[in-house]
Fold:
Amino acid sequence: MEWPGLGTAFWLQLTRDLRLAYRHIGQAANPLMFFVMVTTLFPLALSPAPELLMAIAPGVIWVSALLASLLAAESLFRQDIEDGTMEQLALSPQPLSLLLLAKTASHWLMTGLPLVLMAPVVGHALFLPAEAVPATMLALLLATPVLSLAGAVMAALTVGLRRGGGLLSLLILPIVMPVLIFGARATDLSMQGLEVSGVMYLLTAVLLLAVSLAPAGMAVAMRISLD
Amino acid sequence: MESCLAGNTNPGDRPKPETPVMSAAEPGALLEGQGLELWRGERRLFTGVGFELRAGELLHVVGPNGCGKTSLLRVLCGLTLPETGEVLWRGKKLLRNRADFHASTCYLGHRESLKADLTAEENLVFQLGLRVSLTAADVDTALERVGLTKQRAVPARSLSAGQKRRVSLARALASRARLWVLDEPYTNLDVHGRELVDQMMSEHLERDGLVLLVAHQAHGVGAGVTRRLELG
Structure:
């Protein structure tokens, strides 16, 4: 038997998920809304003093980004499991790891990339110095895919459970700690006008590790969840 | 929960002489189950289930509710791993041969596996696109055959239960799969729909296809060889 190539399969899965997300744009925009709300509530709740907000800006931005990704991870595979389309993916001749990677990629495009693009606006609200914005955006660009990939592995593992939400957060948090630490450090260093390339290299390394290992992990976890 | 096996072949169901049941290149069984046993929690669903299925043969799995018919189909598809036993496709173990087996298999579960927000056509194009390179005409033909030409652009959420089932039937038609795994295909279908399922299966068997069927009611398939497997 012959079947279409890996590129075709990846593209089909990616465009299908983007189309579905587009038809439910409100739901897909949830994590972004969360990110913007949390980060803009801080200046309102605390005193609007620039020094104070500037001091907490790296922490607030990165913790909100992390929590926004956590929020999004839960729904990543749930719908597909419930309507039975995940079974069909597992029964297609294409590698399940590739299809789940495509799903995660589309998920990142809908939930992770908007966070990166929104960072300058949010940074402005927190009096983040303009020279720290490019480094923060680059660090978010490297870090949010890792958050999506880690979330996808854990979501695949817990999707068979009826109430896996709490467990999911518990599983993801320790894994994404390095990302939070390096990411906040990148923002911090660039605010002080220091060299950030070291932190960026570390974030890139974590991203490469996640891209190469996570798809296999997702596929194995998903087959267990489907059993 | 003892289970027994009855792989008897009805002599009256022999295929017409002009349709070759087995091509020379493929001697023996295409799909084979050997000593399958499955537990769900503390309960043994079935044990010692074995069968052989050749080209142009239909395996009708029957048994009371909850005896593990759907679970057996999931084991045969490779979705569930059995406690003991092996499933062989073309003489090779399923797990070693997964891509080839899944390319040759079309599974219709009792859920329709349709995305509610996509139209019937989009659903088909996506699901089939992962397995065969297909043209728009193939999808058209399949949709026409199941009588959904007018509803092709309707989102799946607005289709009735029977129409959703027909979309799944169209998937089987256009999938070019050798093995059809049908879990209660008659559910939600009207009289014409049930006749359509029987016709589709007959034609598939005449093309040397294989069918695994779970259904409570007797089917009206005249072609090919029917084997019965009783569970429970």
The first helix of chain A runs from residue 6 to 23. The mean pLDDT of chain A is 91. Chain A has eleven helices and no strands. Chain A touches chain B through 28 residues (CB under 8 Å).
